[in-house]
Amino acid sequence: MTTAPPSKERNLLAVIGDEDSITGLLLAGIGHVNEQGKKNFLIVDAKTQPSTIESAFEELTERKDIAILLINQHVADRIRPTVDRYQQAFPALLEIPSKEHPYDPSKDSVLKRVQKLFGD
């Protein structure tokens, strides 16, 4: 029996974000629960502990079925050291805005790495 190439295994989006962002993405069809009962999303509110966010981030970035991890930028700010240390190509990490918090390119860890590569 052969194993599927990595591109075939990674076929899901995952998201860590506020309720509005998660709701919109779930309505768009990204929701998934695997055989172990693990969801591909985490709803974060003001009461969510940073340790819970970090734990979900670590779990989602270690999964082999996730191609892209979306995270609201204001949520990423709550675990910024963990987000900045993430260096893997897959799952790709994208910081996204939310309804209440606009996108700030100066905080985006991926954009910072790209700028460093180009010497900006």
TrEMBL record:
The keyword Iron does not apply. InterPro entries: ATPase_V1-cplx_f_g_su, ATPase_V1-cplx_fsu_euk, ATPase_V1_fsu_sf. Keywords: Hydrogen ion transport, Ion transport, Membrane, Transport, Vacuole. One of its GO terms (cellular component) is fungal-type vacuole membrane. It is a peripheral membrane protein. GO terms for molecular function: proton-transporting ATPase activity, rotational mechanism. Gene3D superfamilies: ATPase, V1 complex, subunit F. It is found in: Vacuole membrane. Belongs to the V-ATPase F subunit family. Subunit of the V1 complex of vacuolar(H+)-ATPase (V-ATPase), a multisubunit enzyme composed of a peripheral complex (V1) that hydrolyzes ATP and a membrane integral complex (V0) that translocates protons. V-ATPase is responsible for acidifying and maintaining the pH of intracellular compartments. NCBIfam families: V_ATP_synt_F. V-ATPase is a heteromultimeric enzyme made up of two complexes: the ATP-hydrolytic V1 complex and the proton translocation V0 complex. This is V-type proton ATPase subunit F. It comes from Sanghuangporus baumii.
